[in-house]
Design a protein that fits this description.
single chain; four-stranded antiparallel β-sheet; Arc Repressor Mutant, subunit A; alpha+beta; Jelly Rolls
């Protein structure tokens, strides 16, 4: 991959939560051919129904995994952050049953499927690390389903803020328990299945309870981590 060393280090750091990689395996990731595309907020990266021939690595920004319903409604199924392989499973699908959308300005490295398959064949530990990454995506999806079905809007909001903190920390992007939220309240509404007005009320409630500080620029600071976890009923084991 072209010289995006910091972000490749984030990908490696994430994968090594499961499988330690050799210097040769790390170099193979760093030098794999790719191209980098830039996207504006709400640009479609991959449309539902597409048959991509590349895997998307998020370099900067936040990407939403989206499902567009027959009535035009949008459901956000997950958030992909810097260091995430947003659609690794596209290696095995005949067509995408969902899409990817930039929820903020985003830079995406696109790695040909052929390159990824070659890496997996040549380096078995990379193949295991990629398989773990897809399993982690599945665990996050199951947790989101539990949130949608059984957690209140207040709990859902607190839960996703906790999840983002842990995931961003894992790749070195949440110093001092602060991070840029990036997505809008409308995006959060489409993730939670509630209105943007309701999302705003929940964020204000978390602020009043002394759990978070949120600036107009969407810079978020978690003031009471344990309090936020308790409010969400957050158990981080699913994030491995």
């Amino acid at each position: 991959m072209k010289k995006e060393a910091t972000v490749i280090e984030r990908l490696i750091r994430k994968l090594e939560h499961h499988e330690l990689l050799s210097d040769e395996e790390k170099r193979a990731l760093e030098t794999a051919p790719s191209r980098v595309d830039n996207y504006k907020r709400h640009d479609v990266i991959i449309a539902q129904g597409d048959r991509p021939s590349e895997v998307c690595l998020v370099l900067e920004g936040v990407v939403g995994r989206t499902k567009i319903l027959a009535n035009g409604g949008r459901q956000i199924l997950g958030f992909e952050i810097a260091g995430d392989l947003a659609d690794l499973h596209s290696l095995f699908l005949k067509g995408m049953d969902h899409g990817l959308e930039a929820l903020a300005s985003a830079r995406i490295a696109k790695v040909p499927h052929k390159t990824v398959r070659n890496l997996m064949e040549r380096y078995p530990r990379l193949a295991l690390a990629f398989a773990w990454d897809m399993a982690l995506d599945g665990a996050i999806q199951r947790e989101w389903m539990a949130s949608m079905g059984r957690r209140s809007a207040y709990e859902q909001t607190a839960h996703v803020l906790c999840e983002l903190l842990i995931r961003l920390r894992a790749v070195g992007l949440a110093p001092d328990n602060q991070y840029d939220l990036h997505m809008t309240q409308e995006d959060l509404a489409d993730a939670f299945g509630i209105s943007a007005v309701h999302v705003n009320r929940m964020l204000q409630a978390l602020r009043r309870d002394g759990l978070i500080e949120l600036k107009a620029s969407l810079a978020l600071k978690i003031l009471d981590i344990q309090g936020l976890k308790d409010a969400a009923g957050f158990e981080p084991a699913y994030l491995q």
